[in-house]
Amino acid sequence: MATRLQFENSCEVGVFSKLTNAYCLVAIGGSENFYSAFESELADVIPVVKTSISGTRIIGRLCAGNKNGLLVPHNTTDQELQHLRNSLPDQVVVQRIDEKLSALGNCIACNDHVALTHTDLDKETEEIIADVLGVEVFRQTIAGNILVGSYCALSNRGGLVHPHTSIEDLDELSTLLQVPLVAGTINRGSEVIAAGMTVNDWTAFCGSDTTATELSVIESVFKLREAQPTAIVNEMRNSLIDSYV
Amino acid sequence: MGRLSIKEKLLKWGVATSAVCMLCEDEEESQVISSPNGFAILSSFPFPLLFILQIGGDKGAMASNMFVVPQTRGTVLCCKCGISMAPNPANMCVTCLRSEVDITEGLRKHVTIMHCPECDSYLQPPRTWIKAQLESKELLTFCVKRLETDLKKVRLVNAEFIWTEPHSKRLKVKLKVQKEVLNGAILEQSYVVEYVQQDHMCESCTRIQANPDQWVASVQLRQRVTHRRTFFYLEQLILKHDAAAHAIKIKQMDQGIDFFFANRSHAVKFVEFLGKVSPTKSRHDKQLVSHDPKNNSYNYKYTFSVEISPICREDLICLPPRVATSLGNLGPLVICTKVTNNIALLDPITLRQCFLDTEQYWRHSFKSLLGSRQLVEYDVFNIEVVSPEYNVGGSKYVIADAEVARVSDYGKLFYIRTHLGHILKPGDRALGYDLYGANSNDIELDKYKGLVLPEAILIKKSYEEKRQKKRGKPRPWKLKSLDMEVDESRGRANEQKMDSEYEEFLRDLEENPELRFNLSLYRNKDYQPSEMVSVSDGDDLPSVPLEELLADLELSEQEDGEDSMRE
């Protein structure tokens, strides 16, 4: 189910939040409305954590993660790092990495199996990503843009990319990512997809400017209509728990 | 001089430097090397990365180096209405975009224009009136120009007229404009502007309506002689050079013609033209019509009085002693052979030709002794050539002794010397001045003491007999004439005189090719060369060769008003 909301009158929801299958990070806003919107949807299922990264609120664009881990940039303070480690479930590995390109959210688009990264990312970083997040890493561009993290919103069920992506590119990316992709827009024609929305396997949050058409596209490509959170979480729990003792 | 940074080096080679910022920040660790296709930047930090940049956007060269995947654009859904469309910067289909943004907002859709019904022209403020037909290119340009301020905000792509009823006093123009909206998308929209035509007479029409005879400058052309040959010739010259194109009225007066102009400069131009084609003396004057004390502007009526010298072609002149000596003792009796702005004088006895300038003439002006009216017919009985052929000023003359008698009085024979030996043969008729029988009152003649006047001076050969045969038959050529107002007060007799003078003028034209040189003669469509004429005429009667005739232009609507045909 896709929800429309705003962070302090801005429709760029993906900038101020990070949503994965195991946790949700939310920026500290002036009013609690943003946090409570996430809470009402996700409270029983996954932890919703209020945080900042290197003192800023643009946490969605600075960090990248999936259910296995979370990568934060080098300028994250120790307290923030500790807070994150405390609040998130133990399975989630929080790792601070030294990378020149510090806006990891803009450089890395990932789901639980595969990640697309900025072409100029360090080799070291690539290895860490593969390690921590447990994904296969591909260096790619989307519609000629190297900031793959901004122009693509990815989940395990599907993905939404920049509207100017050509058909050949779509096919290529789809083969790499092994999920159906569609080119579309968010927030009334904005091309910066990941900044305007945040998504996981059963829910999505979009900016309030999103039109009904865009919403229907999102719901269809990410297969949100029939998704039940409990089913997916249980599935996860099953894979996590090895055996009953 | 320090080393240039990478950015500066690339700038020098004309490559956009935005790519550079991402490469390396450290200057010392990079080198720039040039290669045949472009140049490469080696970055050694943190580990060697080679980036090849192409100079210039030569896609052909790129294709030869790398494999480029063909890109086809996909379709996205319009964010508002959900129809499938090609992605554009606004990511909305054109209809949705149009419903959102109206680029013609703030542009004028109704404009008022002033139209003068008399001369069918439109006012471009503050003062210019532009003549234009309905649905013409000029009118479209004018309409678009009236919207200039509006069209600065948008870009005009196309403009065209929408048909409106001519009497509705409305003009509709459809304009197509382009403007950039939202984030970079260019929207094209067409809209209709309606022009309301308001009738308002322009200043020149108002002036003409108020007083149709209103003229500002007039040129009064006069020649103090009894015939109108000069004016017939001048009329043809004026027609040929279109000198009276700006005249609003031309009036025929006694001994001259009056031309009226709406502009002083037109009158001045006309006076100068006259000065070039005839020996004239002019004076000018002005009369105050109105005076605006507030802005110190004065309206005048200007008058130019132009007098042509009374000396005409074929006149016999007795030169005053002063003039004769200044011209090198030219025999006091001379014949005038040619009049343009110089007067050519020929001494028939010595065959000397002299030219008198306009100023020279007017300094010591003189009148002619005998004019072409006084020419008398002579019969030539005998010719004895005395001298060889002389070429004087382009024409050949031969001095001969002739035995002649007046046709009216065969009793008296004269033995005279004539310069027409080259064309006269015994049995010919010639026209000349009868000095034996003439009673001249000339003061100049009296000044010469002891001057022996010849009894007759022959001027030209007469073709009168041959003309008798051709009387009534139309000529193969015709002339145009100016639209002149004639004073109705003169009677029938005058009209006959005028006709006969005109007929003589036409004959003159036939006989003198150099006179025809400056004029335009037109082919007479009605003339049918009949068999009879060609047999009997032989080669004696001079006529205008067909090559000299201009094919007559079809009279257009405009020409009808100005010229009229006269045969």
From TrEMBL, chain A:
<keyword id="KW-0396">Initiation factor</keyword>
<protein>
    <recommendedName>
        <fullName>Eukaryotic translation initiation factor 6</fullName>
    </recommendedName>
</protein>
<keyword id="KW-0690">Ribosome biogenesis</keyword>
<comment type="similarity">
    <text>Belongs to the eIF-6 family.</text>
</comment>
<comment type="function">
    <text>Binds to the 60S ribosomal subunit and prevents its association with the 40S ribosomal subunit to form the 80S initiation complex in the cytoplasm. May also be involved in ribosome biogenesis.</text>
</comment>
<dbReference type="InterPro" id="IPR002769">
    <property type="entry name" value="eIF6"/>
</dbReference>
<keyword id="KW-0963">Cytoplasm</keyword>
<dbReference type="Pfam" id="PF01912">
    <property type="entry name" value="eIF-6"/>
</dbReference>
<keyword id="KW-0648">Protein biosynthesis</keyword>
<comment type="subunit">
    <text>Monomer. Associates with the 60S ribosomal subunit.</text>
</comment>
<keyword id="KW-0539">Nucleus</keyword>
From TrEMBL, chain B:
<dbReference type="Pfam" id="PF21193">
    <property type="entry name" value="NMD_SH3"/>
</dbReference>
<dbReference type="InterPro" id="IPR007064">
    <property type="entry name" value="Nmd3_N"/>
</dbReference>
<keyword id="KW-0963">Cytoplasm</keyword>
<dbReference type="Pfam" id="PF04981">
    <property type="entry name" value="NMD3"/>
</dbReference>
<protein>
    <recommendedName>
        <fullName>60S ribosomal export protein NMD3</fullName>
    </recommendedName>
</protein>
<dbReference type="InterPro" id="IPR039768">
    <property type="entry name" value="Nmd3"/>
</dbReference>
<feature type="domain" description="Nmd3 N-terminal">
    <location>
        <begin position="78"/>
        <end position="308"/>
    </location>
</feature>
<dbReference type="InterPro" id="IPR048899">
    <property type="entry name" value="NMD_SH3"/>
</dbReference>
<keyword id="KW-0813">Transport</keyword>
<keyword id="KW-0539">Nucleus</keyword>
<comment type="similarity">
    <text>Belongs to the NMD3 family.</text>
</comment>
<comment type="function">
    <text>Acts as an adapter for the XPO1/CRM1-mediated export of the 60S ribosomal subunit.</text>
</comment>
<dbReference type="InterPro" id="IPR048898">
    <property type="entry name" value="OB_NMD3"/>
</dbReference>
<feature type="domain" description="60S ribosomal export protein NMD3 SH3">
    <location>
        <begin position="311"/>
        <end position="354"/>
    </location>
</feature>
<dbReference type="Pfam" id="PF21192">
    <property type="entry name" value="OB_NMD3"/>
</dbReference>
<keyword id="KW-0653">Protein transport</keyword>
<feature type="domain" description="60S ribosomal export protein NMD3 OB-fold">
    <location>
        <begin position="375"/>
        <end position="461"/>
    </location>
</feature>
